[in-house]
Structures are given as C-alpha cells and as structure tokens.
Amino acid sequence: MKKLNIGLLGLGTVGTGTAKILIENKEIIKKKTGANLHLKKAADIDLNKKRGVVFEKGTLTNDVFEVINDDKIDIIVEMIGGKTIAKEFIIKALKNKKHVVTANKALLAEAGEELFELAYKNGVDIAYEASVGGAIPIIKSIRESLAGNNITAVNGILNGTCNYILSQIANKGMEFKDALAQAQANGYAEADPTFDIEGFDTAHKTAIIASLAYGTKINFDDLYIEGITGITKTDIKYAKEFGYLIKLLAITKDLGNSIEARIHPTMIPINNMLAKIDGSLNAISVFGDAVGELMLCGYGAGMMPTASAVVGDIIDIARNILFNAKTRIPIAGFMPAQIKSKPVTPIEDILTNYYFRFFLLDKPNVLSLVAGILGAYGISIKSVHQKERNPQEGVPVIIITHLAKEAEVKKALKEISALDIVLQKPVFIRIEDDEK
Ligand code: HSE
C-alpha cells in the first residue's frame, strides 16, 4: 500500500485532535484512500504535556525544521496559528514543495494571496477548510459543490464563542462574563478572547469567505468590524418581544462593482434559518443563482470538530497526490488570473433596517421631536413602542425603521442625542430582514 507522510507543526488543541484522528482512524482512512496516511513527525515546544494520544516512537520533536525539511514528508499541517512564525514555516514548507494544510484564518485573511501565489509557483496546494466554520465544509462547498453558481451573498454565524454567549444570555438570562468564562472552559474561545468578542475572529473568516465566493481580493482593513461587547440583556429581551434574535453576523454581498462585507451584532427575525442556530454552533447561508439559499450548520469550534476538517483536507490532498493531480481545484476558488480587486462598501453607505432604543422623558410632544428628526433625514418609521410609564425618570422607547442609509441614521441619532428630553445615549442595532 502506498504511504504518504504527514508532518504536524503545533500540538495545541486542534493539532492534538488532528494527530488523534490520523492515529486512531488510520484503518478507516486507509479504506477510503487506498493509502497509509502516516503521521511521521509532530513538532511542539512542550513534549511533556499529557495529550491523550499514543504517538509512534520517534514522532515527536522540538525542532520544526526537522519536520519542514524532511524529504520524506509530503504534507505539512500548520497548527501553530498567528501571523509571524506560522507564516515563516508555511513559506519554507511551500518552497520545499510540500503541500500545506492550515486553519490559520488570521494569516490567510491578511496574507492569503501571497501564500497562494507561492504555492502555485511551487506546484503545491494549500488547503484551509478548518479556517472557517470549524467542521462545516464551507470552503469545499463554495469551491466545488457550488462552482456552477454566481454567488450573490453569504451570511453566517462564524464565531462559536459569541454565539454561545448571546444564546446563554437570551435563553438562560446569564451574565455576559459568566457565559464567556464557560465558552473558554469549553475550549471554544481564542487564546485571547477579545479576538472572539470584538469580532476579529469572525472578520478573518469573513474575508476568506468573501474572497472565495466572489473571486475578489479583499483588503482586510476595509471590513467593518463591531463585536458583541455593547449588547445588553435589555436589547436581547426587547429584540425577542419584536420577534427578533441578536446574532453576531458576517454579512457579505456581491453588489457588482463593490462587495458588502461587514461584521456586527444583527437582529434577525426568529423565523430566519440562522436564528435557529444556538450555542457554539456555527452556520453559513450561501445564496447562489442556481442553488437559491443553502445553509450549512455544525460545530465551528472545539478540538475534534475542527480537526475533522483538517483531516478532510489532508485526505483531499493525499488523493490528489495519488492521482498526480496537484492544484486540481483553484486554491481561492477562481483561476488565479480571474481574481479581481473590488472595493468594500463603506459602512456609511449601507442600506438596512434599524432598531433604536431611546430613553426619553415621558411627556407630550417628545415623540414628535424624535420622529421629526428621523423624518428630516429620510428615515421612515415602521413601528414605535413605549415600554413603561414614568413621567419623572424617563422611559425606554423602541423604534424600528424601514430601510435607511447608515450615514443618515448616524446624523439623526447625533441630533436626537443633543435634545434635553433624551436621557441616555441612544442604542442602535442593525436588522437583517427581507424588506426590499
Ligand atoms: N474561537 C473560535 C470560535 C473558534 O469561538 O468560534 C476557532 O475559529
């Protein structure tokens, strides 16, 4: 039986999961590939840690170059993460004409183009299914299964930590910090959880998906990124009363000459498919001209689900090697010469529905002042609800709008905030609805 050798860099959570699958599921992988995918070397700085995996003698090493420079190794699996040494190691592996599998979303979001070019130059592949949505085969779906479509939009819940926190607050009334601590304990969160809750992790994944879906270069710094730290129990409760849930959503649309790509807390109707995605689950809805809407859902974080995607990539590459079919599928979905740059629409130019929560003095004429300013900026009101009655200390007033332009919304809210009947800074949350 043909043997292909694999070298693993990094035995953290996902690296360990990958080793575990390669070792423990060796026989089933043989049956499906006709080859022995052998974990020849695995490098990590800490070799004493108990990992619950039985490695063959001589597999473990402290020296990454012992792995990258091993002539017998066909596929390097980079599980270190980050944008510095991981990049250096991937470059070295590609130059050594080794195929690379990685889950490194931050690196791919910011330097994917450079690495893909180097891979083509050396006639090897880079596979990165685990970089977006953990176990969910979204990269494969877009690159292969949906290749016949013009993809018009991709929206997703791409961060398990945020989805877990928002679900725990909505379903159990839990405090933000307690839900975050649980997500960390469950192993979903990044080493620095601000990457999760401030939206950067979702943004890295969004950049990868948008480039792949639309055949564009995306400048990561042009994405609009807003995390979930400003979301309160109060707004989650009111959202529910109005038939919405709040999710940290990645929203991308191909507008022809530009791409909309934004990450922010979003109210979605409870009957939207993405609203059913609870806890650490991720889900991604792809809209194509032939397929309509296709939603994929699964575990977007955690050791074994993410390792499942890594091993899927290893097997894909192994099968290509066995049939001498390198870079059979374009790494970024489109033929390299067809990839164009398109600008990302500035957030000020987007058109969407809005939820406003004001805290207003409860006396005659107050609402007309607020409505007057909204009207002056062309913002049309869909519904208004006053939540309580308290003439002395003020009351929450919720307004839901029809489609409005973000720049006008911000100007209107600034003017409204300056009124003396406004007792707190207004809150606004974007709504993703079907209104045209
Ligand atoms: N920290 C990420 C999440 C998992 O919470 O979804 C890895 O992408």
The radius of gyration computed from the alpha-carbon positions, rounded to a whole number of angstroms, is 24 Å
Q: Which molecules are bound in this entry?
A: L-homoserine
Query: What is the tally of helical segments?
Result: 14
CATH architecture of the largest domain: 3-Layer(aba) Sandwich
**β content, as a range?**
25-35%
Task: Give the fraction of residues assigned to helices.
Answer: 25-40%
Distance between the termini: 58 Å
Q: Looking at CATH, which topology of the largest domain would you report?
A: Rossmann fold
CATH superfamily of the largest domain: NAD(P)-binding Rossmann-like Domain
Biggest sheet features: 11 strands, mixed
What structural class is derived from the secondary structure elements? alpha/beta
Which regions have little confidence, pLDDT < 50, spanning 5+ residues?
none
General shape: elongated
CATH class of the largest domain: Alpha Beta
Count of structural domains: 3
Mean pLDDT: 95
The number of E-state strands comes to 19
Can you walk through the features of this model?
- This protein is an alpha/beta fold and 436 residues long.
- 36% of the residues lie in helices and 26% in strands.
- The chain has helices spanning 13-24, 26-33, 64-68, 85-95, 105-121, 138-145, 160-172, 176-185, 194-197, 200-214, 233-241, 303-322, 366-376, 406-417; strands at 2-9, 35-43, 60-61, 73-78, 99-102, 126-127, 151-157, 216-217, 224-225, 244-254, 259-269, 281-288, 292-299, 340-341, 351-360, 381-386, 395-401, 404-405, 427-431.
- Strands 7, 9, 10, 11, 12, 13, 15, 16, 17, 18 and 19 form an eleven-stranded mixed β-sheet that branches. Strands 3-2-1-4-5-6 form a six-stranded parallel β-sheet, with helices on both faces. A two-stranded parallel sheet has the order 8-14.
- Helix 7 packs across helix 8 (176-185).
- 44% of the residues are buried.
- The site of L-homoserine has 10 residues, from helix 7.
